[in-house]
Amino acid sequence: MNDLTHHTSICGKKIPDFLDTIQAFHGWKAPGIVFGGIMVDLARELTGLEIETDAIVETRHCLPDAVQLFTPCTIGNGWLKILDWDKFALTLYDRKALCGYRVWIDLEKSRRFPDLYNWYMRLVDKKDLPLDSLLNTILLAGRSSLSWRPVRMTRLYERIKKNTIEICPGCNEAYPAAQGRQCLACQGRGYYETDDSRAKT
Amino acid sequence: MNDLTHHTSICGKKIPDFLDTIQAFHGWKAPGIVFGGIMVDLARELTGLEIETDAIVETRHCLPDAVQLFTPCTIGNGWLKILDWDKFALTLYDRKALCGYRVWIDLEKSRRFPDLYNWYMRLVDKKDLPLDSLLNTILLAGRSSLSWRPVRMTRLYERIKKNTIEICPGCNEAYPAAQGRQCLACQGRGYYETDDSRAKT
């Protein structure tokens, strides 16, 4: 990717290190995370690197991993929320002032990069668009295929509090009292059946 | 933590490296992720390290990060699903055979470790239980506070497919056609209002 040396770094990492970080976490250099990293890089710069931000992503595909890798926000620490809207957009916002910046892929701008547009709009078969070629296009397009806007949060900005827990009389595990007299699994909403034929000692 | 050297490694990492990995990703050595890492370690051993597994966690607190750090499953790659049940349990399962192992904190067993029990049941104030002391207890308790069972998946095992997308006439962004004639944000379900007073050039 010698033709991409005009990018000095993304999210504070040199390009090869940026790509290696993605591969190590996500299993491969998924184009959505590479593109997502460029979005995070822009959003961090807009909000100011010194500001502690929470994050919202508007799709569960790829983008959550870009935020988790390149900001302190993770699903498990509660600073990242995921909306299952299938929109490739994210917002980083000052968790005290509740204002921040939303960054999204701008379809009009991205038309200048047909591989990027066709990949994003799912107009081309994966086998007809080699990964290295697509990654090159994404890194080349960079911020020029993005738009952004300052926003003020109107909802979804509250940290999720932990619930009051009780011990479920069905399974003897702790569960939130608000779910009823038993936990959801014991209410028949579990996702598994036990299979003691495979029990090990 | 010299008294913990009887643990040689967790999830293939020496204890200090294991703790550093957690801190780097999650921002601090959260006890829930340390404990979660021990659960992942057991579940991986039960399923067999050579098996490609998907994962389900039954809480959004901490445990998703343990799975994302110590297995190839992440939210963004779709191999991890999160149930917001507030139960400290996880299942790793063979994604082809749909069978695997569920691991959970066993309250009865954990009573032998009062700090662990009181922390998990939220019976003690954070300030009365220093982090280092709690982490020591968790590492000492290890698997002896867990139970596990072989399970067969009955639902939630399907990979989430991407939707057919259209361009929203309201915002000109791509969105899933199934959401209606406009995207959810343009239908009034957004989480932000724009604030162009902070626009930058």
Keywords:
homodimer; 201 residues; alpha+beta; 60s Ribosomal Protein L30, Chain: A; Wheat Germ Agglutinin (Isolectin 2), domain 1; five-stranded mixed beta sheet; two-stranded antiparallel sheet; 32% helix; globular; disordered N terminus
Task: Write up what this structure looks like.
Two copies of one chain form a homodimer. Mean pLDDT of chain A is 93; it is low at 1-5. Chain A is built from seven helices and eight strands. Chain A has helices spanning 15-26, 31-47, 63-70, 107-110, 114-120, 131-141, 185-189, and strands at residues 53-57, 80-82, 89-94, 99-105, 146-153, 165-167, 174-176, 192-194. The N and C termini of chain A lie far apart (52 Å). Chain A has 201 residues and is α+β, with helices and mostly antiparallel strands. Chain A is globular. Chain A folds into two domains: 2-152, 60s Ribosomal Protein L30, Chain: A (2-Layer Sandwich); 165-198, Wheat Germ Agglutinin (Isolectin 2), domain 1 (2-Layer Sandwich), CATH 3.30.60. In chain A, helix 2 crosses helix 3 and helix 2 runs parallel beside helix 6. In chain A, the strands form two sheets. The first copy, chain A, has a five-stranded mixed sheet. A two-stranded antiparallel sheet of chain A has the order 6-7. Chain A is 32% helix and 19% strand. At the A-B interface, helix 2, helix 3, strand 4, strand 5 and strand 7 of A face helix 2, helix 3, strand 6, strand 7 and strand 9 of B. Strand 5 (146-153) of chain A pairs antiparallel with strand 10 (192-194) of chain B, so a sheet runs across the interface.
